[in-house]
Here is the input.
Amino acid sequence: MTHESHHIQQQYKETMYNIQESTKVLLPVGFYDPSTKQYTRHVEVAEWTGYTQEALTSPIAKNNYNIGISNVLNIVVQSIGENGEVFRKSNPNSMLPDRFMRQLTNADREVILLQSLAISGEEMRKRACTDKCNHCGGEISYDFDLTEVEVLEWDHSKPPWVEFDLPKQITVGSGNLKLTSGHAKIKLMTGLDAEVLGKKSDKGEFAMLFEMLAQCTEFDGIGKISVDVLKSQPRSFLDFLKRQANLQVGAIPYKKFQCHHCGEETEAKLDLARFLV
Here is the structure.
């Protein structure tokens, strides 16, 4: 995997592991406690039930996919902490309090989702897929097993965000209310962030990028800024923020194989939606 800046690359532990066919899940990031600067990285999951599938297909989930995923995770997660010391359910089909899965990063949420599917039987763990070769365009059929998915860990000596100096100062407001900043941080997107953005998912790709940057970026002395203020910045500044936000941690949903048409090595990306039907 390539990272777009040396600064970002330093945030990764560069440790990989695979999705497991196990109820014990090791989170790539985890629950972060800023007071102790420690992470809780263990959760226990159960296999899918009818309640799980129902949570994914509820009316509210159809309007906001990320709320549906939160509901699924609230059902499949049974305990938090290596020995359930943070939270443990008494009823396996009950819902976790919303704060836990909303607090987790998207990287963690996806790994929990994939591993809960991996333990829910072969029909849930494997899918027959068809894609086109990246080189010759030939059609390729293959099986995708969730246990083939590799996971990239965060560097747990660091908090779940990156901090950096800006290429130019940003100014908001005017007169006595003018605020200026030359430093910012971008956090890893959480479940709550994803739910907020899910309400705006009908917008285009670039519009959603601006929404994400506005949601996850804080500027020293200013805090968050509006999407309109962000969009008014020079393209070079926005491209810089986009590079800093390229925090590729968690599941790496690609499978590499040799194309039987041209003999070149190609890769296919996991479409998670194939496993949720």
The first strand starts at residue 12 and ends at 18. The first helix runs from residue 6 to 9.
